[in-house]
């Protein structure tokens, strides 16, 4: 029997606003596996989301630890989600949780796209949304790591960080 995967949810900081009002705001994020959307709310108790990010066709980027070391700073724990022509900046409490979120989002997108590919293969139904065949990691000219497309199964890598998020409880 197949177990339902644990829900991916927790607090992240979302960069929003313009000009002097621009800043990070704490938001509760919940991944919806049926739509491959990452919804965000003001708090876990809210019934209606403030918005969502379409993860099925998203690419992710983040600053590598080498670039931060060159600047003599701690590696940042923020990453960008490039989706639907927009870039959303999210920040985790630490680098380990940032890596956890990136790996989980890639894994769940891979599972979503794979399930759509199976439906397409079986029924010759509509094509998959977005480009589910993007590569996993590349480096652009700015020196930022680019992460996109389906990931190989990163479960072994997640063992070190899996205890950080327990179901839908707030990260410790």
Can I get a quick summary?
The chain has 172 residues and is an alpha+beta fold. It has a single domain, classed as Pleckstrin-homology domain (PH domain)/Phosphotyrosine-binding domain (PTB) (PH-domain like, Roll), CATH 2.30.29. The chain contains three helices and nine strands; from the N terminus they run βββββαββαββα.
Task: Give a structural overview.
The protein is globular. A hairpin with a 5-residue loop joins strand 8 (137-139) and strand 9. It has helices at 65-70, 95-123, 155-158; strands at residues 9-16, 23-32, 37-41, 51-54, 59-62, 78-83, 86-91, 137-139, 145-148. The chain has a single domain, classed as Pleckstrin-homology domain (PH domain)/Phosphotyrosine-binding domain (PTB) (PH-domain like, Roll). The chain is of the alpha+beta class and 172 residues long. A nine-stranded antiparallel β-sheet has the order 4-3-2-1-7-6-5-9-8, covered by helices on one side. The model is unreliable at 123-143 and 149-172 (pLDDT under 50). Helix content is 23%, strand content 29%. The longest helix has 29 residues, at 95-123.
List the helices and strands and how they pair.
Elements: E1 9-16, E2 23-32, E3 37-41, E4 51-54, E5 59-62, H1 65-70, E6 78-83, E7 86-91, H2 95-123, E8 137-139, E9 145-148, H3 155-158
Antiparallel strand pairs: 1-2, 1-7, 2-3, 3-4, 5-6, 5-9, 6-7, 8-9
Labels describing this entry:
3 helices; alpha+beta; disordered C terminus; 9-stranded antiparallel beta sheet; globular; PH-like_dom_sf; PH_domain; 172 residues
């Amino acid at each position: 029997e197949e177990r339902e995967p644990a829900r991916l949810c927790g607090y992240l900081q979302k960069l929003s606003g313009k000009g002097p009002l621009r800043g990070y705001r704490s938001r509760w994020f919940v991944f919806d596996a049926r739509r491959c959307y990452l919804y965000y709310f003001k708090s876990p108790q809210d019934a209606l989301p403030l918005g969502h990010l379409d993860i099925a066709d998203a690419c992710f980027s983040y600053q590598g630890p080498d670039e931060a070391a060159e600047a003599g700073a701690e590696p940042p724990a923020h990453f960008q989600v490039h989706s639907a022509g927009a870039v959303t900046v999210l920040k985790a409490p630490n680098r380990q949780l940032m890596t956890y979120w990136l790996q989980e989002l890639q894994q769940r997108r891979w599972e979503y796209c794979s399930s759509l590919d199976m439906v397409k293969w079986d029924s010759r139904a509509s094509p998959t949304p977005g480009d589910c065949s993007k590569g996993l990691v590349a480096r652009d000219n700015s020196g930022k790591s680019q992460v996109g497309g389906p990931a190989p199964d990163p479960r072994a890598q997640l063992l070190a960080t899996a205890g950080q998020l327990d179901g839908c409880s707030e990260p410790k």
